[in-house]
Amino acid sequence: MFKKTLFQLHWLFGISAGLVLAVMGVTGALYSFEGEILRLLNSGHGQLATAEAPRLELGELVARLESSSGERVVDLRIDDRHAGPATAYLAPPPGERRGARILFDPANGQVLGTPRGQEFFQVVLQLHRWLAMGETGKQITAASTLMLVFLCLSGLYLRWPRQAGHWRAWLSLDWRKTGRGFHWDLHAVAGTWVLPLYLCASLTGLYWSYDWYRAGLTALLADPPPAVQARQPAIDAPATPDYAALWQGIQQAAGPQLIAWNLRLPAAAGQPATVFYILRDAAHVRAFNLLQLDPRSGAIVRHERYADKTFTARLLTSVYALHSGEYFGLPGKVLMLLASALMPLFLVTGWLLYLDRRRKRRAVRAARSTPNAAPGDGWLIGYASQSGFAEQLAWQSASQLQAAGLAVRVEPLARLDAASLLRHPRALFVLSTFGDGEAPDNARGFERRLLGATLPLDRLAYAVLALGDRHYAQFCAFARRVDAWLERQGGRRLFESVEVDDQDSSALRHWQHQLSELTGTPVPAWHDHRWTGWTLQRRQLLNPGSQGGPVFRLTLTLNGPSDWRAGDILEIRPRHAQARVVAWLQRHGGDADEPVELDGQPVRLAEALSTRQLPETFAHRVGLHGQALVDSLLPLASREYSIASIPADGVLELFVRQVRHAGDDLGLCSGWLTAHLAEGEQLLGRIRRNSAFHLPADDRPLILIGNGTGLSALRALLRARILVGQRRNWLLFGERQRTHDFHCASELQAALECGDLQCLDLAFSRDQPDKFYVQDLLRRQQDRLRDWLAEGAALYVCGSLDGMAAGVDATLHELLGAEAVRALVEAGRYRRDVY
């Protein structure tokens, strides 16, 4: 809770003070080299005497300046570290803090005129300190400076890694990222680079912002006054100084190492003359010594040497040098300049991240605002979904009913009970079957509670859309069990169940048609994500030398906006390799270059056939021309891959294992993606929401379990958690050999070292004589497993169904008991994305 509150305050203060801090940063950067810039601009502004020319006495020098300007000189600054003009300030007009500034030749007192650029830097200084708004602006800049201190400290806390000594976690910027991920890196990593400089600038800047801060800093850092104050000589009453005596007193106090000095003459009788002077061997360019003298006799009234002060008192004396970076010499000054100039970067990246966050929240609110309330006589649509496809179809069915003016309530089966079924007279059920005849995870509770019960459902009229895969012997078995139970309870079928094999489009159109018959409205075109072109930007082999099939990391980009959530799926339209299509045509006497149409676009026959199922038997198609042949062949079924990245990364990544069948033939889609599709070419894909594998709404601990390419979805979940600062993450991952199959090793080790991943347990089955799997890790870490689950942790499992997922499920039942596992499933704390 504390971290979340701190995060919200960080955003609030950053957005509130960002523009002011950006102005202060840019103006501070400009003002930091004011002296050097002015000297450069005025290098030819009047002719200086030669260095060998004798200098005027102090009194004669002041007299010439006052004679030339017609005003009294109150401040004289001569710096022999620079070969250029000296500076004098004249008495200010009534009500002003500072008078006119003039340049002069320190050798002969010749006034060189108003410095070029002086007015510009006066405006810059006013913007930097007060936003050119007087006292009101001063209060705004002061408050913004306080906020900068908070932003620095809160930002440091929010990204503090567990292994604080791991420098990559602090300073490594990934230039390959784009979009939100790159903006986040710029904001967080670049912010870490400049954080010490911003803290130094803000903590010293407050010295001029608040009297209470200056008094507190003085009390904390200043040297205590001497126990016995020496009696100071009285100051003669006349205000007119004796410049010869003054200069003699300065030289005697400073000695031959005097290199630069600033003489401030008394404004009234009885006040001392003040001199700030620097010696050649000074610690830094602003290591001033303070000297106060009687303006008539030159007698020393007060003398504070920088070298005699304690370290804390020297820091207090050097507040301006610390603020500008000069305390650390020219490198410090340059670094402070760069850091100040970078301040607008954090304004821009902060706003981009904030707007992106708001956009996603609006999208979530919009998605949740879909009408879902129905009175007692409305329609109920219940769905059971493992991968998200049944949920998608349930909402599309709801949209079709709502378009006809019907009230609809859509719920997962996990939320339905006997009262829900009794209350609604009409219902649709969109039901997936998981594996070989099982209920999806989130429907097991429904099956256990209701399918063995007896309910008076004679008022219920219902229909079932069953989703399955005929490769399994128990095709659509769960949906059939629900259908049979509803019939036994007296329910009346609105029409016969529609069974869909692997997203068969003709079966789905039949379902739409049946709904249209019920509502009396035309069959609508269901809203669906259209297929879009994704460019293969990069393909990287992750496991060279592995005993298993090659695993490739595919990086895809889309020219246009696209969004998904961790846990979602990319559905891909596969293609045959062109060599296979050409060989098939040659075998059956076809012309690869014959022009045909595919989806309304003119293409070659070979290209069109690359998207179609190519049967081994061709006899009944002999004599068909190219277009008829294309139209007679079924399209290739789409393939699904868990997404391994998050939108903030700026790219979509997949982990694909290359499948090789008997006869050394590559798998259709995996072979095309990993061997035949060239970098820079496009594939057709679309995002499919998989809400059953989305992250919990809260920041509860997360246990991620997977093997092989199942790491893909787990990686996306982990990256999404890290992005929002949720660090209670535990990953258990299994593969064959650590040396070859530890996918994303450096990334996961870095997350572990910086604390974003609190636990990482690995099982490499071929690295020891006795094979060791992920489920064995669970047994080894059963105490930690129970502790995390007691804290409310959620379990996410991704990988192979028959091997790892089944083994993990059996181990959980062994360690926790069937009732505890059932409770986890029904609470949404045990989720699986398996294949």
Keyphrases for this structure?
elongated; Rossmann fold; 27 strands; Elongation Factor Tu (Ef-tu), domain 3; eight-stranded antiparallel β-sheet; six-stranded parallel β-sheet; alpha/beta; 835 residues
Short description:
The protein is of the alpha/beta class and 835 residues long. An eight-stranded antiparallel beta sheet has the order 4-3-2-1-5-6-7-8, with helices on one face. Strands 9, 10, 11, 12, 13 and 14 form a six-stranded parallel beta sheet that branches. Strands 20-17-22-15-16-21 form a six-stranded antiparallel beta sheet.
Element layout with pairings:
Elements: H1 2-31, H2 34-41, H3 58-69, E1 73-79, E2 86-90, E3 101-104, E4 111-113, H4 118-130, H5 134-158, H6 167-171, H7 179-205, H8 211-221, H9 243-254, E5 258-264, E6 273-279, E7 289-293, E8 300-304, H10 311-317, H11 319-324, H12 329-341, H13 343-368, E9 379-384, H14 389-403, E10 408-412, H15 418-423, E11 426-432, H16 444-450, E12 461-468, H17 477-488, E13 492-493, E14 498-501, H18 505-519, E15 532-541, E16 551-558, E17 569-573, H19 578-588, E18 595-598, E19 601-604, H20 605-609, H21 626-632, E20 639-642, E21 652-657, H22 668-676, E22 682-688, E23 702-707, H23 711-723, E24 729-735, H24 738-741, H25 745-754, E25 759-764, H26 774-780, H27 782-790, E26 794-799, H28 801-816, H29 818-826, E27 830-834
Helix pairs in contact: 1-4, 1-5, 1-12, 1-13, 4-5, 5-7, 7-12, 7-13, 8-10, 26-28, 28-29
Transmembrane segments: 12-33, 140-158, 186-210, 334-355
InterPro entries: FAD-bd_FR_type, Flavdoxin-like, Flavodoxin/NO_synth, Flavoprot_Pyr_Nucl_cyt_Rdtase, Flavoprotein-like_sf, FNR_nucleotide-bd, OxRdtase_FAD/NAD-bd, PepSY-ass_TM
Protein name: Flavodoxin
